[in-house]
Amino acid sequence: MIVMAGIALQAGGLDSLAQNFEGIIYIINIQNGQDIYCYNGLPGEPWLFPVGSTIKPFTALAALRKGVWDPEQPFCCQPAPIDSPLTKRCWYTPGHGVLNFPEALAHSCNLYFLELASKLDYKFFLEVLEEFKLTVPDNLRFQNQTQKLKAMVGLDYSLLLNLKSLLRAYAALINGGILFPENNQTPNILKLSHDNIFLIREGMRLSATIGTGIKAQEVVGETPILSKTGTAPYCMEGRYIPSKTHALFIGFAPENNPVWGVLVMAKEGMGALEGAIKGGQILKYCLQN
Ligand SMILES: [Zn+2]
After folding, report:
1. In angstroms, what is the span from residue 250 Cα to ligand 1's centroid?
2. 20: domain range?
3. Can you give the CATH number for the domain in which 171 is found?
């Protein structure tokens, strides 16, 4: 179901990339906020979904701002048995080993971000989301400590965000703090520290070169991109299914002066696979057309 066709791009090629795709594709120009392409192949579903690890840059920003986390401090992601609780282990059970901040973001290391989130007052996390116009469901404000931790690293299926707002929030991280609203109204200018944004951006650059976004870069080819992936708890029509996951991918290109911002959500799969491959195909198309 095509909701809106391309303006600056020829929509035909995008339509063929979107054909029969069970998921969501959203493209904007991050320099002027213009909607470029908007596809929802999940009829009857609103744009609200669990967002998995794509929440991590905002958790990180809150912790860095409050000075509760030292990004220079190396952290060791240890191996853990697969049956240990999600809040005690990384998604990568062999362990990522020693990581700095950008590497942890690039690999989306859960243990690193669980430790970071454990130092952060939850209200500052919610404040950052509010600043970026990411509206959270009301019940998310009244969680127990474990649920708060899970929300801050993207493991909680009740953290549902509007995917259009999510891409626009990321665009503000990348374009120097310009938060474009959806309806072409006056943008909000966010005060973001250059150092903090540099760290997040470096994590997204590394994601595409050594981390979970590598499949997207392989598809795009030579032009460097920025990326972040997410493998989110599966929740359709309000029903959570623990055995399945949604794939998310957010990417920007070209890396040195990003114009195109792309969000892909695939109904089933992993961010680093289904999300990154489709996201790479779309970024490649944007760069070539
Ligand atoms: Zn890890």
Report:
1. 20
2. 2-288
3. 3.40.710.10
Provide the mean pLDDT of the chain: 93
Q: 112 C-alpha vs ligand 1 centroid, how far in Å? A: 6
Nearest to 279 by CA among 268, 269, 266, 267: 266
Residues with CB under 5 A from ligand 1 (ion): 77, 90, 96, 109, 111
pLDDT tens digits, residue range 107-133? 999 999 999 999 999 999 999 999 999
Measured over all CA atoms, what is the biggest interatomic distance in the chain, rounded to whole angstroms? 50
d(CA 149, ligand 1 centre) in Å: 16
Centre of ligand 1 to C-alpha 109, Å, is: 4
Q: What confidence category does residue 139 fall into, taking pLDDT thresholds of 50, 70 and 90?
A: confident
Q: How far is CA 109 from its chain centroid?
A: 14
Burial of residue 118 (CB within 10 Å: 0-12, 13-18, 19+) is middle
User: How many Å lie between the centroid of ligand 1 and the Cα of residue 79?
Assistant: 8
Angle between helix 56-66 and 163-174 (nearest 10):
50
Question: Which value, to the nearest 10 degrees, does the dihedral of the CA atoms of residues 34, 37, 43, 49 take?
Answer: -60
Q: Give residue 50's Cα distance to chain centre.
A: 11
Confidence of residue 236 (pLDDT cuts 50, 70, 90): confident
pLDDT digits (tens, 9 = 90+) for 18-67: 999 999 999 999 999 999 999 999 987 788 999 999 999 999 999 999 99
Q: What are phi and psi of 278, to 5 degrees?
A: -65, -40
- Report the pLDDT averaged over residues 172-199: 95
Q: Measured in angstroms, how far is the CA atom of residue 150 from the centroid of ligand 1?
A: 15
Q: How far is the CA of 158 from the centre of ligand 1 (A)?
A: 23
36 CA to middle of ligand 1, Å? 35
Task: Tell me how far the alpha carbon of residue 75 lies from the centroid of ligand 1, in angstroms.
Answer: 10
Name the domain count of the chain: 1
